[in-house]
Specification:
alpha/beta; 8-stranded mixed β-sheet; 3-stranded antiparallel β-sheet; 35% helix; 15% strand; globular
Amino acid sequence: MRIINKSAKLEHVCYDVRGPVLDEANLMRAQGIQVMPLNIGNPAVFGFHAPDSLQKTMSDALARSDGYSDSKGLPQAREAIAGYCAKKGIRGVQPDDVYTGNGVSDLIMMSMQGLLDNGDEMLVPMPDYPLWTGAVTLAGGRAVHYRCDEQSGWYPDLADIERKITDRTKGIIIINPNNPTGALYPVEILEKIVDIARRHDLIIFSDEIYDRLVMDGLQHTSIASLADDVFMVTLNGLSKSHRAAGYRVGWMALSGDKRGAQDYIAGLNLLSNMRLCSNVPAQSIIPEALNDSAPDLDILPGGRIYEQRELITNALNDIPGLSAVKPSAAFYIFPKLDIKRFNITDDEQFVLDFLRAHHIMLVHGKGFNWDQPDHFRIVYLPCAEDLSMAADKLRGFLSGYRQA
């Protein structure tokens, strides 16, 4: 019998947000065991749903959505996205500079496939959202991880970025606000990243999917608003901000100096044409969603996301052997374990042990390409009662835990 193996291109690709720990949890569920999923940022699982008005808009659009759209997307959707870019201070974005996708994930893959040759390098944050590293690898490139500094609020280490630039480096990826840390990058950090890209002639890819989930009165700045002379690709969507993850609504916008990027843009157009178009009914909600200026009550004091962030930050920092930087955005926190105290050498084993003991799923830090076994990610979307229970279980578990 012929053995059918997976592609060698997958050898160094992982997505542990939905990896072996989830496989173990699914085995438990098959046995009738209830598992709390603190591993994935799917708002609907925790009672957050798309606004009724957007649901109705999509429903009403179905009768007009049985054909393909333009490969880049519906004109009215791309016009709305260009308008949103203008509101964010990103100058010069026209509808033709916009590509809609089946979520941002679709466009991350496309943006890397269209750019990288074998051996090309991309600077990727550490920790990162692992799809970025996977997309770089699948495209034949090499993900070079620059450190984000926990002691400095998880901001990118600019000196580390500079040290890791080579003649094969094509661009810098930033995730702002960050997943998994919840960090929001200040203007002065973003300006220095722009300066690095300018001096080394690099593209900036900015994943901004959480830009409307910023707390504490802080403001998100899109890095593309800070320069017109650097070519940039900004990615965004409605999955998180409008609780519409299952609708698969994402986009990317090209801005800055495009003169040297014409061949890359032609490649993006080719890839866009090859996949025909993104989900047409989902595109129909983009104009209404981006025209909505109502405040998100969940991220204000008293709102669910805000109060759950407060609860989990305080609870984690109250557990001996744990510390956690308070996130400013999104709905994740990335606590640090005292690995000497717990003798942890394998962070995936740690989260598996906790899952087996208390039926609660976390994601280990190496799943986000962190280089030490001393972190894990918690999603704080569950209700306050469930988060309190999970924190109590973690406290009890760690009180007697040491890896062999």
